[in-house]
Amino acid sequence: MTTNFPSTSTTASRWAQGAAYGGLGLPLAFVALPLYVVLPNHYASEFGIPLAVLGAVLLAARLLDAVADPWIGRWADHLFARSARSAWMVMAAAAVVLAIGFRALFFPAVQGSTALLWWCAGGLAVTYLSFSVMTVIHQSWGARLGGNDAQRARIVAWREGLALVGVMVASVLPSVYGLGVTTVVFAILLVLGWAVLRGAPQPFAQSSTQPNAQPSTHPSAGMHLPLSLPFRNPAFRTLLAVYLVNGIASAVPATLVLFFIRDRLQAPTYEPLFLASYFAAGALSIPLWVRAVKRFGLSPVWLVSMLLAIAVFTSAAWLGAGDVAAFTAVCVLSGVALGADLTLPSALLAGVIQRAGHSGQAEGAYFGWWNFATKLNLALAAGVALPLLQVFAYAPGRQTEQALAALTIAYCVLPCVLKLMAAALLYFTWIKRFRSTE
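Structure (tokenized):
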């Protein structure tokens, strides 16, 4: 397995290779958090779709997509077993479908609540499935480049750092230029990201010897590995459990942030400021987290970021109408925690794959299940939080005391409880058991 990416001698070459690999993360980020932030509000505000029904559609679409991810992962392993070029060419077809599906979601060609819901469900299925193909292949590509803790973190940092830039662009574009321009920009960036990936370091199908790893077999043997292979690895099961709980904690406020800004803070004109400061802080914090990993290791640094997020969201529960400056500070500090969430878990997973001796064989299988967990997090956040808010008398624009209390609990308190659970899991089940093998 090539390690040219992390070990290139010149800074200019490292930056060029990092941008070539990570560049695709920028447009793919449009389909991650921004879609989950913008789409529910768009359908509720523009078309009057009830939150409970919309939450059910989002949950169903995400679950369908999540179930497909492990199979997409095994397919990615088959593609890489042939060549990186085979995987790259498949991504071209997926990019075309993704661009069309993304556009259709925001500009439905039907009217009426029932037709709109069916259109939304179909659009989500097409968009998410094509997004999954590109994402799993992209993540597997990076994991196959190998390296130690710091090198793996650096590889993931390029992908997730540029993804955060994409999130920031996708969050601000709709407010400033509208959804029409947003979908066009997305299509252009998607083509560019796919094109430059061809110039990134090429992973080999067969891995070379890695520290703490068992020898891997010929790549053709990996094609016959079972889909359930990752779950036979105790380290993967443990890491996935932490990732699931932590992911739900992050997905809930991401789904509800626009409602909180508009109804609790009553500051809709500051949406671009809040979102931009959050994602910019996340992107700018990634190099700091990577540097901390070199000194303290991946899991201790991730634990610190969780505790930071808990402290920040606890303070957000006390905010009210007009607290623009205070909430901007909340966005910046929670964005710093986000930088760790997006970078460190995937680097930990790449290490799990190496130590299991599955490098060059089963990255797709591992990342397929990993993406299953990611989408399950988002599905549960939308499918549970939105209907619960409606049960407790909250609806967009409603600013009664009871409605705002329910919104505050869902946006601030619930994520803190879940983050605390994730931090406890990380410390007692991972750091205590697997820390010495990182």
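Residues 401-434 form the longest helix (34 residues). The domain at 19-205+230-437 is CATH 1.20.1250.20 (Growth Hormone; Chain: A;).
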